[in-house]
Amino acid sequence: MYDCHERNVKVYLTLNTLVRDQELRDAEHMIALSCVCGVDALITQDLGIARLVRECAPAMPLHASTQMSVQTLAGLYELHDLGFSRAVLPRELSFAEIRELAARSPIELEIFVHGALCMCVSGQCYLSAMLGSRSGSRGLCAQPCRLPFSAPGGTGHDLSLKDLSLIEHIRELNEAGVFSFKIEGRMKRPEYVAAAVTACRQALDKGETDEALSRQLQAVFSRSGFTDGYFTGKRGRAMFGIRGKEDVTAAAPVLKELSHLYEKEKPLIGVSFAFTMKPGIPLTLTAEACGKIGTAQSDRLPEPALTHPLTEESIVRQLSKCGGTPYYAETVRCDLAPGMSVPLSAINALRRKALAELSRQLGGQAEKCFQPAAPQTASVHRTQGHFPAFYARFSEAAQLPADYSAFSCIYLPLHTPAETLKRLLSAGAPIAVEIPRGLFGREAAVCQQLNTARQAGITAALAHTLGAVRMAREAGLIVHGGFGLNLFNTWSLEQAAFLGIRQATLSFELTLAQACALGGELPRGLVAYGSVPLMLTRNCPLANGTACTSCKKDGFLTDRKGIAFPVSCTDGCSELLNSRPIYLADRLSEIRNIDFLLLYFTRETPSECAEILKQYQSGAAAPAETFTRGLSYRGVE
User: Fold this and answer.
1) What distance separates the 2 farthest-apart alpha carbons in the chain?
2) Model confidence, pTM
3) Cis peptide preceding 623, ω within 30 of 0
4) Per-residue pLDDT reduced to its tens digit, 354-371
5) pLDDT band for position 550 (50/70/90)?
């Protein structure tokens, strides 16, 4: 920490994983340590952790992780109201969308400009968790998307994107108002980090990167090259790539060349020196940089020169010898009495002493105040009303069974025609609308759809992101929190209630036991049935093959074991669904302290939906080998 602050480098701690109730005290301890150490900001995803930070360390700056899936101006304002000062935007945004957000954002914006590019929108990926219990939202993604998943006519790796590179666009982004550029360097060699940082710095300062360095950067690590497809809006097959044998072998020859980039520290902090030499007064030197001042005074007094008095030129020459430090002499101001002299060794010692004091001033950042959180008083949640209450989510209104009277709430897509909504409402159906998880560039259109739905008689909306929560609330609708909010602990439920959410679906990465043990008063539910979405992507994986028909037809990806995973395209994004539905009809007796069960229908026919409801009403045994328990028992790491 000290070394970074000495070099005027900020240190941000990523506290951006989902946290269980029993881990909250450890998280609080980490917040306390960050305050003591002088961490400059915490990067968080979990709404509960954000609430905890604000309570324990109100002076600690909060940065919203890209895992929070904030894609809209409404989401940025929601973050601002929650006390965040910066947001890391999703990688899927185009330049036009970034520029529009930057022009109106109430907080600083940060974007990724280089490094690994996930197929899924950050914070909305459950593939690794569902396939192997390693949760990406808890920092343990096993990257199953890099394994073979084949679309008809595809490459065989149709969930694997090339690495991102926006280096040539950095100046555009800077001029658009983006505050911070982020390089994804986890699990990379130092040569890669050095090359990526140097290339970005060159592009920002000079408007271009050395051709040789660009070639070396691609050689040291890439997946069949780089892509800027999201940024330019040119999505499709050209964005896909894998790390092949040629990519690996290309790295070896350039590693030694790139190691020279970090062999010796480059002095980057300009220092303003002020040197004073007066008769009868000890030599004095001040070194000023980054708003801090280091002062040093010599033990010896200057003496009259016998032959060669000390000149300003010789003093500047000695003070400019800052080798082995992060500093260089930017300016030197001298106040000299004529005819005086001291040994040059005294000036060198004075320089070292002043720079050491400056380093102490820069490195010794003040601690931030920390106050332990009050002990949690929320008792185990007590349900409201009769259990089980069945909620249903449908991909389209045509899926509704003839008799839907058993459902306490029915979610239909926000794009459902107003006439359909009116007809169902007039027939007594408890209809609410579901706001899409992917809202890229569609905020105005979605706000209009919400107003249209409200005018049709809709009173509630299901929101999976912070932006959607705010838009629904401002449209005058009751807000239901969706699984995309990743509500994982009691503090996150309390924060959701603070946002005006009236009831919420819990993360399906919780086990039944964990979900049933959560406290707080906010009504909550579980996804008890359905082929849940494992990925949300703005680049349809079917577009890497021949099966894509401009989002007019659903398709499948097949993994290396021959298992088919449905792909559903709607509202400008695609979802990769699980190969088998979650089934818990025969386990209802194990569910406690839960207010409703959500039956998540995706591709089922009306008759199939009706049959599944009957099975849950009767507690029917699970169908052989055609279902999964999801993470209800095995949970995630």
Assistant:
1) 110
2) 0.94
3) no
4) 999 999 999 887 789 999
5) low
Tokens of 340: 């005086």
Residue 280 gets the label, from left (phi > 0), alpha (psi -120 to 50) or beta, of left
Coil/strand/helix, residue 298: coil
Residue 75 token pair = 């989401």
Cα(462)–Cα(465) distance, rounded to whole angstroms?
A: 10
> Domain limits of the chain?
269-358, 389-531+579-618
- Whether 258 and 191 have beta carbons less than 8 Å apart is answered as yes
Name which of 607, 436, 568, 429 is nearest 420 in CA terms: 429
Q: What is the DSSP letter of 238?
A: G
Tell me the per-residue pLDDT of 477-526, one tens digit each, with 9 for 90 and over.
999 999 999 999 999 999 999 999 999 999 999 999 999 999 999 999 99
Q: What H or E segment, with its residue span, contains residue 466?
A: helix 466-474
CA nearest to 6, candidates 277, 347, 292: 292
Please tell me the distance from the alpha carbon of residue 226 to that of residue 248, in angstroms, as a whole number. Answer: 15
DSSP annotation of 161 reads: B
For CA atoms 59, 63, 64, 70, the dihedral sign is: positive
Task: Report residue 538: phi and psi, to 5°.
Answer: -90, -10
Report the alpha-carbon angle 579-581-586, nearest 5: 150
Q: What is the Cα–Cα distance from 529 to 235, expressed in whole angstroms?
A: 33
Contacts of 465 (CB under 8 A, 6+ apart): 68, 69, 70, 71, 72, 75, 435, 437, 439, 484, 485
Helix (H) or strand (E) holding 88: strand 84-88
* Closest-CA residue to 599 (of 391, 304, 436): 391
Residue 147 is which amino acid?
Answer: L
In the three-class reduction of DSSP (H, G, I as helix; E, B as strand; rest coil), residue 499 is classed as: coil
The C-alpha angle with vertex 609 and arms to 607 and 615, in degrees rounded to 5, equals 105
Integer Cα distance of 48 and 99 in angstroms: 30
Query: Considering only CA atoms, which of 242, 236, 201 is closest in space to residue 223?
Result: 242
> CA of 15: how far to CAs of 393, 480, 506, in Å?
33, 26, 21
pLDDT tens column, 115-130: 999 999 999 999 999 9
CA distances from 393 to 126, 387, 396, 499, 511 (A): 19, 18, 9, 23, 21
d(CA 412, CA 433): 5
- Mapped onto helix, strand or coil, the DSSP state of residue 226 is strand
The backbone torsions φ and ψ at residue 11, rounded to the nearest 5 degrees and listed phi first, read -120, 120
**DSSP letters spanning 408-455:** EEEEEETTS-HHHHHHHHHTT--EEEE--S--TT-HHHHHHHHHHHHH
Homologous superfamily of the 389-531+579-618 domain (CATH): Aldolase class I (3.20.20.70)
The secondary structure of residue 539, as a DSSP letter, is: S
